[in-house]
Amino acid sequence: MAAIQGMRGSGEWSADQDVRPTNYRELFTLLEPNGNAPLNAMLAMGSSEPTDDATFKNFRDELPDRKLTVNGAIASTSTASITIDASDDNKFAIAGALVVNSSTGEVMHVTSDTTSTTLAVTRNIGGTSHQIADNAELFVAGFAAAEGGTSPTAISFDASVASNYCQIFRTAFQVSNTLQSTYLRTGDKMDEAMTKALKLHMSDIERAMFFGYKHEASGSTASPTRYTGGLINSLTNVVDITTDYASYGGSAAGAMTEEGFDSLLISTIFKYGSNQKIAFVGENVANHLQQYGKDRWQPTSVEGAYGVNLVRYGTFAGDLMVHLHPQFRQIPNMKNSMVIVDFPYLSYRYLEGRDTQLLENRQANDADSQKHEYLSECGLELIQDKTHAYIKNWSARKN
Known about the structure:
19% of the residues lie in helices and 29% in strands. The strands form 7 sheets. The protein has a 7-stranded mixed β-sheet. By secondary structure, the chain is an alpha+beta fold.
C-alpha cells in the first residue's frame, strides 16, 4: 500500500495494475484489398464447367494466315523459283493459287504443288516486273482456274490439343475448445477464423489462376501433385514494354505513348476474339489509362458488370473494360502490368463434386479442438490463347 496526497488522476495507474482496464472497441476490423478475387467473381458469373478427370483438354483451331516469307532476294527479271522460309506455309500455295507480294503488289500465279520450301510461280501477272526482297511477305490472294480445268488440290489442317490440370487447394483453420469457451472482446474466434480462411482460400485460387505454372509431379504414382497453369505462364501473346517500347512510340525502356497503345489495341489486342475484353491492371497502368481518358476517351463507369465494377474505354478497335486488380497492389512487379482476358474463351473448371466446399471436423479423434478446412479442386481452361494478352513492364507514359 502506498499513500498519495492531493488529487487523483487517471494517469496514476499503470496498465498492469488492472485498476483501469481502458476501453476497447468490441470485435475487430479486417483490412483487405477491395474485391479480393475479381477474376473468380467474373468466372462465377460467366463460364464454369465440371470435369470428370483432374486433367482436362480442349481442341484449338484457327484459320491460317496463309502468308509466306521469302528466303533470299530475287531480281525482277528472274523466272527462277522462289525459296520460302517454312514448308508448312508453302503447302497452302497450291497450283492455281494467286500469290501477292505485300510490299510491291506483284501478283504471281502458282504453277505446281509442293511440300518443300520451293514456290514455283508465273511472275508479274498483268503488270510491271518487280524485285522481290529478302524476307518479303507474300500472301495467298485467291485462286484462278483455267477454263475446263480439273479441281484443285485439297487442303486440310488439324486442330491442336491444349490441356491443364485441376489443382487441389486446401485452407485449414483450427481453434482449441478452451479458446471457444473463452470470452474475447474481438468476438467468436471460430467465426473469425472461418471468415479469414475463406478469403485466403479464394485469394490462393485467384493468384494461381494468374501466376500458376502447369505441371504434374509424381504423375505415375498414387499421389500425384498437380499444378494448374495460370494466365501469365500460359499466354503466348505477351508484349514487354522493356524491349518492345520502340514499336509503341516509347523513347526509353518501359515507355509507351497513347498512339502506341492505340496501335497495340488495333494490331494485337483486338485482332482475335470479342470486341469487348476485360483488362486487369496494376496501379501504374491504371494511372496511364486515367490520364489518357482525361484527354480523349472519357472513361465510363459500368456498375456491377460481371459482379465487378469496371471502367469502359471505348476505341475503334473495341471496348476495353478496365479493373484495377486489388492483388496487383500486393504482388511485386505487377503495378506495371495489364492482363487482358476475353471471357468467352476462358472457363473455370472444377472436378465433379470437388468445387469449393467447407469440410468440418478434420481434427484428430483425441484432439481437444475443432478443425475445419475449405477445399477446392479446380483449374483454368483457355479455350483459345491468342484472344487474351499480357502487357508487362509498362512503367512510363510518354506524351
